[in-house]
Amino acid sequence: MLQNIKLDIDYVRSQFPAFSDPLSKDWSFFENAGGSYVPINVIEKLTEFMTSTKVQPYAEYPMSKIAGDNMDKATELFAKMINAYKNEILIGGSTSINLYVLSNALKKYISKNDEIIVTNQDHEANISPWRRLTEVGAKIVEWKFDLNNHELEISELKKLISNKTKILAVTHCSNIVGSINNLKKICKIAHESNIIVVGDGVSYAPHGFPNVKELDVDFYTFSLYKTYGPHLALLYGKEEILKDLPNQNHEFLNGNYPYTINPGGPNHEELVSLIGIYEYFDNLHKHHFKDEEKIILNKINKVNNLISLHEEIIANPILDYIDKRSDLKLIGKNKIHNKDRAPTIAFTSHNISSKKYLKNWYKVRLQPEMIIFTRGDV
Q: Under CATH, to which class is 52-276 assigned?
């Protein structure tokens, strides 16, 4: 039916053991709170570390040296994948944790009655850490999406910005509406007023890794367990801001950014397994493109575009179908064009109450002959 799919789905599936595993191979998952299954490369890297190099890293004996070298390699590869410097990214336990620690570090910039803008289109992880800063005198200003089109309008943001605004926390992609917000333009407007922008890419990165320098965002975070990795999250921060933040880690790491905002440091074995994510994308590039591209960022861009095209082809017919139904109301744009929307689809029904359905959900789920899939992060 769909003749123009360019992404080789059979090849993609062959990279994930879950599709041949007896327990999981016959399931289709429409949830994402727990993240994505991982490719074989990630599993192999994790196994290698746990088997051969589960020691204190960065010493001179072979296992320790290999462990430290691979931890550095994973960090360097991901820095290149998102166009950052190695000392501008850290790997923490989750996006929620990373943002909580970051908000504590950024308190130094907040005086009484200073303003922080948050949106009502964001995931809670990029709202509550900033709302908590009311404890140090901050005033929270909410940037609300338009009730007609569900978009965050730039014109409304301009009205909210004042000479008291210090931080703007905004999602790159809504996990409900699916809209891709123009983070580059948002950053430009905010920076004209010396506002620090914290971008949440949890719902964006699974559809294509960001170019943080092109966005010119001050901080950017996303969940690595939703981009084919273990339960970790990445936080990027501009070096000029990071080096000025108060230490949130051990005293002996004072001044050693970005470790200063990564209490306890990274999970060694899971950090090394991130090399497998790069290898997966490298394999996708090699399989689909026959060139000898050496620049990692260029490879990522090409694979991003490949995935985006596939998402358009499979999601647009669904969006069109829902949009044309008189008994349904589609939330957000009715078509993906040039990656202006993620294939995250939400709608309401004029005839069926979701509240009524949810009341019965637990009863339904207990019936062994029925399989219920839910989206867990909304």
A: alpha beta
Encode pLDDT of 293-351 as tens digits.
Answer: 999 999 999 999 999 999 999 999 999 999 999 999 999 999 999 889 999 999 999 98
Report d(CA 120, CA 125) in Å as an integer: 12
Phi, psi of 377 (to 5 degrees): -100, 10
Residue written as tokens 């490298």? 282
* Measured distance CA(163)–CA(139) in Å, rounded: 13
Q: Which amino acid is at 168?
A: L
How much is the pTM?
A: 0.91
- Asked whether the beta carbons of 336 and 319 are under 8 A apart, the reply is yes
| % pLDDT > 70, the chain | 92
CA 163 to chain centroid: 30
Encode burial over 189-220: b for 16+ CB neighbours within 10 A, e otherwise: bbeeeebbbbbbbbbbbbbbbbbbeebbbbbb
**Side chain identity at 158, as an amino acid letter?**
K
Beta-carbon contacts of 314 under 8 Å, excluding residues fewer than 6 positions away, are: 2, 5, 343
- Domain layout of the chain by residue ranges: 52-276
318-329: pLDDT as tens digits = 999 999 999 999
Distance CA 49, CA 13 (A): 25
Q: CA-based angle 306:308:310, to the nearest 5?
A: 75
Q: Which residue matches tokens 């879950």?
A: 18
